[in-house]
Write a structure and sequence with these properties.
It contains 8 helices and 7 strands. By secondary structure, the chain is of the alpha/beta class. The chain has a 7-stranded mixed sheet with strand order 1-2-7-6-5-4-3. It is globular, with a radius of gyration of 18 Å. The N and C termini lie close together (9 Å).
Length: 286
């Protein structure tokens, strides 16, 4: 059931989501359109997020069959896992919503965008995504929000840092770009990168996996800050952003993805509701 639902969700999302590249003197912006509050899109996003919790999407973005025919107990475990991320209702502490639920959903939407970038042009300009790591279990973890391998003019690593600040996209951008400062001298981060790369490369065919060796990312990497904010906060993303100069890669490898969400609070609430409805539906159809 999950496999069919996931394929249907991906078909819908690839048809409604689009991207536009805007080049500036400090970076390239990728403007995403189509992440709307309509019920079909919300349900598709919710289905994708639940599928990632069930480990239905492998690192190489293939849909695995291992957990598709799970029994009632497995699906009950899936429900409990989902509720740990988003709560049993939307009546939650404000701090949990802002620091845990919304940022976690945003990170999995980023996973979705990198996935469909293979079909939707311009989401990931440096190259074709061939593998994506797992989203954080805890948004408050200071590790890598999301890593991905791409194949283009060179084989490289994308390191994404995601922030979801409803009313303050400028602060979100500043905090996101701070993450990349002194990148090459952050040895703990380097160890985490090697762990992620090792997991992702294991899912690749030999002609690609052999490229992911010898700290290749030190020579070829893309840094991708992603910020979610309420679209009522108006910003112009076609101008230079001095904070992007903190990132020590070439301009075309600095990819800013600002995502303005109409009715921001409702968007995350509705996705959460759809996720809870979907796991209940799965339980009723074992």
């Amino acid at each position: 059931m999950i496999k069919g639902d996931l394929l249907k969700a991906l078909d819908h999302l690839t048809s409604v989501i689009s991207a536009q590249i805007i080049k500036t003197d400090t970076h390239h912006s990728v403007i995403i359109k189509g992440l709307n509050n309509d019920s079909t899109t919300v349900k598709a996003i919710a289905t994708y997020i639940v599928s990632t919790v069930s480990n239905a999407i492998e690192a190489n973005l293939q849909i695995t069959a291992d957990l598709m025919d799970s029994d009632y107990e497995d699906r009950l475990d899936l429900k409990e896992s989902v509720l740990q991320y988003i709560g049993s209702s939307n009546m939650l502490e404000k701090s949990f919503i802002e620091k845990n639920r919304n940022p976690w959903i945003a990170e999995v939407i980023l996973h979705l965008l990198l996935n469909i970038s293979r079909q939707v042009v311009d989401i990931h300009p440096p190259g074709t995504i061939v593998a994506v790591g797992h989203a954080h279990d805890l948004p408050t973890d200071n590790g890598i929000d999301l890593a991905a391998l791409y194949d283009g003019a060179a084989f490289g690593l994308t390191i994404a840092e995601c922030k979801a600040y409803r009313q303050n996209p400028d602060l979100a951008l500043s905090h996101a770009t701070d993450y990349y400062v002194d990148f090459s001298r952050n040895y703990i981060l380097g160890r985490r990168i090697r762990t992620q790369v090792q997991t992702m490369r294991a899912s690749l065919p030999e002609e690609l996996s052999h490229k992911a060796t010898k700290s290749f990312w030190k020579n070829e990497r893309c840094c991708m800050p992603i910020i979610f904010y309420d679209a009522s906060v108006k910003r112009t993303w076609s101008r230079s952003r001095p904070s992007m100069n903190k990132i020590d890669v070439s301009i075309e490898r600095r990819i800013l993805v600002p995502i303005g969400i109409q009715s921001y609070n409702d968007f995350f609430d509705e996705i959460s509701n759809a996720m809870r409805s979907y796991v209940e539906e799965l339980l009723q159809n074992v």
